Amino acid sequence: MSKIYFVFFGLLLLLSSHSYSQVDELFIKAGLVYDSEQNVLLKNKVIHVKGNRIGGIGDMNMIPPGAAIIDLSDHTVLPGLIDAHTHVLFSQEPTDDFAEHSMATLTLQSDALRALRGARRARTYLEAGFTSIKDMGNSGLYLDVALRDAIEEGSVEGPRIFASGPILAAAGGQIYGLNPSQQELANLEYRVINGVEDAKLAVREHLNLGVD
Question: What are 168-174's contacts with CB under 8 Å, separation 24+?
């Protein structure tokens, strides 16, 4: 192959779901498949997809007559990537002051706007080949859980999200220098912990509200 195109397999499945929504299984012809366990490239393989699961990887002769096929014979197919530390519902430029940006987010953005922007960011992860991400908070009051559920039910497109919920934090959260009279703002972004028993209660709250 004179040119190699990298196609992220999980991304392909998610973005192809509309075209193949009525197909129980399909077969992907791949010029090269990256085997991450063995760290090798496998030539001229077929990826068998059944439902939303990979059924197996084999040779071209495994394709039955009349099967649905995606032909990527001129491409290299990779497993979906995983980002284990993201904040898809919080956007900060490198030069922004974190505390000031946090205050602006909490006071100038509605939850609805924040969720919509988060959905857009989540899709950019998917388009870049990340099929799973772990959101580490700074996501309002369980907006990451809501976004995860919206993606899982197909309302919006994005990667699989492992949601952490509000960060368990000391008074003021990560907003250093927060005036005590404004503590309620931190409560919109963090689960402030006041002692051992409160910490136990916070964990139960997270479990009850569906964090991962």
Answer: 168/193, 168/199, 168/202, 168/203, 169/193, 173/102, 174/98, 174/99, 174/102, 174/138
Q: Are residues 90 and 187 in the same domain?
A: yes
Per-residue pLDDT reduced to its tens digit, 89-139 = 998 788 888 888 888 888 888 999 999 999 999 999 998 989 999 999 999
Residue 42 corresponds to which tokens in the numbers above?
């496998």
Where in the sequence is the domain holding 54, given as residue range(s)? 5-79
Q: What is the pLDDT of residue 113?
A: 93
Q: What is the pLDDT of residue 20?
A: 58
Hey, is 48 helix, strand or coil? strand
CATH number at 28 reads 2.30.40.10
In 10 A of CB 163, how many CB atoms?
A: 25
Alpha-carbon distance of 28 to 140, in angstroms, equals 40
Residue 142 to residue 210: CA distance in whole angstroms = 9
Angle value at C-alpha 6, between 85 and 15, nearest 5 degrees: 70
Same domain membership, residue 116 and residue 21: no
Q: Taking a C-beta distance cutoff of 8 angstroms, is the pair 55, 74 a contact? A: no
The overall pTM is greater than 0.85: no
Task: Judge whether 115 and 89 are in contact, CB under 8 Å.
Answer: yes
| Number of domains composing the chain | 2
Domain boundary among 19, 45, 79: 79
**Domain finish residue from 79, 110, 138:** 79
